[in-house]
Amino acid sequence: MALFASSINLHLSKISHSEFAPQPRPSPYDPPKLLPLPAVCSSQRAAANAFSRERNIVRASMNGLNAVGSSSLSDQGADYLPMPVVMIDQDSDSDATIVQLSFGDRLGALIDTMNALKDLGLDVAKGTVTTEGPVKQTKFYITRLDTGRKVEDPDMLERIRLTIINNLLKYHPESSQHLAMGEAFGIKAPEKKLDVDIATHIHVKEDGPKKSLLYIETADRPGLLVEIIKIIADVNIDVESAEIDTEGLVAKDKFHVSYRGAALNSSLSQVLVNCLRYYIRRPETDIDSY
Prior knowledge:
The chain is α+β, with helices and mostly antiparallel strands and about 290 residues long. It has two domains: about 5-35 and about 50-185, no CATH class; about 195-285, ACT domain (Alpha-Beta Plaits). It has seven helices and ten strands. The strands form two sheets. Strands 1, 3, 7, 8, 9 and 10 form a six-stranded mixed sheet that branches. Strands 2-5-6-4 form a four-stranded mixed sheet. About 45% of the residues are buried.
């Protein structure tokens, strides 16, 4: 069952790329311990590090591969923190899962993030870095090491998402103020607390005769993607593809779904919405799931 694309866009204050700051202090957690992984292929090949650079050149320092340059005042002021965004896209490329990150212009070369993805049994085939206004966007094209194909397992997609957020908290600890996981593992918990009942919005729309578009917006938490996929499967609905976005404290996900090869009728759409709303609004997430 072909699955989806997730994305994470991360926006922050402007940082100079000509100088790199010393490596930030270690994260208060160890990503491998937080994200127990299944056994992966023993013969892992080195991830390709060839980056195409468009309008921006990124260099890594020897002392801190993910470190960034010394900060300068942004247009919003020295205390301004951009919104971190992570996006996972399964639709744009037929051969690879695309992961896009943004955090203002604070992201460095992200070599440690690439290595962390490799530790999941994945291959980063290529990457691109582009700058749009004050935001620098880094995009990875990811495939499985064992098959060379895109990632379709929802559990692995969630591991990818959490691994990237783990690294973001490690190398940019200030991002914890804008991330749900920052409350448990960051240097400063988010000041804004989302009420899951208020933050949750679920809609099903027509998307042609053979599929429907399911849109879910809710408070982010670890394991959310896997939980959503399980609930959809329990209603015997197929997920054909998706885009998974993490925008700060909010998860915004879009799924192309079908039932026995056809779009969902109004009755089945309402059943799906009711099930998702019930379970998402009553999280039973344990700290170990981080």
